[in-house]
Structure formats: structure tokens, C-alpha cells
TrEMBL record:
This is Pyridoxamine 5'-phosphate oxidase family protein. The keyword Oxidoreductase applies. Its EC number is 1.-.-.-, 1.4.3.5. GO terms for molecular function: pyridoxamine phosphate oxidase activity. It holds the Pfam family PNPOx_N. It comes from the Bacteria.
Amino acid sequence: MPSQISRELLELLDGKNLASKRCEAMMLQTVTEDGWPHTAMISAGEILALNETDVRLALWKGTTTTANIARTGRAMLVTCWKGKAHYVRLSLSELPELKDAKHPRARFSGTVESAREDIAKYADIISGVQIELKDEAAVLKRWEETLEELRK
């Protein structure tokens, strides 16, 4: 499997044009201490692809997902985008806390270990998980600020 994400997925995760990605939600899968899969939802405002191999995550502190990543250093990103299902294995390490963060989060730096795209010959994927923001302007502003902090 390739160890980089496709140009299409990079477009979703590049931190640009967040308003056009505001309805897209992705699954971030980790493993709990007792060995069970755990799935969390993340948005385009919480993950940033610096390029095809390097990503950063900004996650809520104190969550099961954050604890799982801190413990194992691993996660799998699953999303549907541009008619394909994408499965991305990530190796992650914790970044230092930003003292002046507008939106304090647990921050992680990651490397793509493998990436796979899936399509079916008998059906088209027309959507993945989609969300509707309750306070669109406020959320988009927070996402932009969060991604800017991930760039530091």
C-alpha cells in the first residue's frame, strides 16, 4: 500500500476553503486499552495535511480518542471523498501544548503509514458522513484558528 495520501484526499485535508468542506465528517479510529475499536468523528477543521505524508490533528483533551492515541501512537482515518472510500493508517506523536492557543487542544503530528482507496464496480459512493453546523460562522472561525495553530 502507498505510504502517502492521494492528491484528492490532500485537497480535503489541506486546511483551505473550509466553508466548502463544512459538511464533511470523517471517522478517526483508535483502539481502547481493552483492545476494542473506538470511533470518533472529526472535521476538516481538526486535521491538517501538510503534504501527502505528514498530518496534524487537534483533538479535544480528555477524550477516549486522545487517550488512545497518546497511549498507542496510532489511528486510522476513514472518509469518503470524491466517490472513493479512503483508509489512512497514521503513526502519531504528541506535539507540545501551545500556551497562547485560542482553542486549547491535544495536538498530534503524524506520518502516513499506509493509504488505501476503495471503489466498487457495482455502485458509486455518493457521500460519506455529513454534518450540518449549528453556528457556521463561529465554527468556521474556530476551525481556521485551530488549523493555524497546527501549522506552528
